[in-house]
Amino acid sequence: MSQPTSSRGGSNGEARDTDWDGVRLHIVSGKGGTGKTTVAAALALALAAGGRKVLLVEVEGRQGIAQAFDLPPLPYEERKIAVAPGGGDVYALAVDPEEAMLDYLEMFYGIKRVGKALTRMGVVDFATTIAPGLRDVLVTGKTSEAVRRRDKLGRRVYDAIVMDAPPTGRIARFLNVTQEVAGLARVGPIKNHADLVRGVLASPETAVHFVTLLEEMPVQETLDGIEELRTTGLPVGGVFVNMVRPAGLPEGVLEAASRGRFDSAELALGLKAAGLTDVTADSSAVAEALAREVTEHALRTELEKRERVALEEAGVPRYDLPLLPDGADLAGLYELADALRAQSVA
């Protein structure tokens, strides 16, 4: 876990040491099954705590945010979905590429009505099919616009934006596609738009975080993703190690079990002495079954230690999030948000 680097105040005057002072766009990626959307939702709650206003953006059309907060499917509009600890607000936006295209036409050409007609004709789908990168530019562009947006008094509309981004395997291409589109369009509004988006994504105001489990494949994908982002010049954030299980047993017991030196006969005597086995039960059989469980747990713990060492080599901040015994329900999101704040993430 990283050490706090600075402090900042919330809109209610609360000051906290945080690791990501100055970062306004938090992009959350991760291999499928690691809990990427859950972590993004918890991060939004953590960042909003203490009176801040945070926008949580979904870009893949899965309605994962709605499921995480136990809400009906979200429309293409920014709406308040949760109150964070201390009175902060979390808003959500499920980006729809077609609607984002209409916004783009209105913003740069003032022809939203024409755009709607083009949508009915299928031209928008045609355009994003022959130029797939354009779809990603529209999605990231909507998020970047929210980062830059100010109210009539010149104040930032949102204190932070959290994007529930595509999986690790395609995050670098998803974020770097603006440069490809800018290369295709040498001049004009499309190039200007792509350049604006790239300016936000590559700036110190942005951090791309990864969610992983302490398993070989997710960790390797995380390391590959970090390296790919560094190669393309995009800002690497931290690593969220999700679903961390407590050790549960003393280090000496785990070490003995992992090396096949766990004494099940001694365990049987201990069970009997503690009155944990019925007089009619075969304490040896119970002890052997427990010993197998202990050995499996010890071997998993050893594997997790190796994966932690591998993550350390990436040289980025790491944060542990506990395995939620009751699953990632709404109460669990708040528990994870508290864990993030306790580790100075927000």
From TrEMBL:
InterPro entries: ArsA/GET3_ATPase-like, ATPase_ArsA/GET3, P-loop_NTPase
Every ArsA/GET3 Anion-transporting ATPase-like domain range: 25-181
MF-aspect GO terms: ATP binding; ATP hydrolysis activity
Keywords, sorted A to Z: ATP-binding, Nucleotide-binding
Highest taxon above the source species: Bacteria
Presence of the UniProt keyword DNA damage in the record: no
The keyword Lipid biosynthesis is annotated on this UniProt entry: no
Name of the protein: Arsenite efflux ATP-binding protein ArsA
Native organism taxonomy: Bacteria, Bacillati, Actinomycetota, Actinomycetes, Streptosporangiales
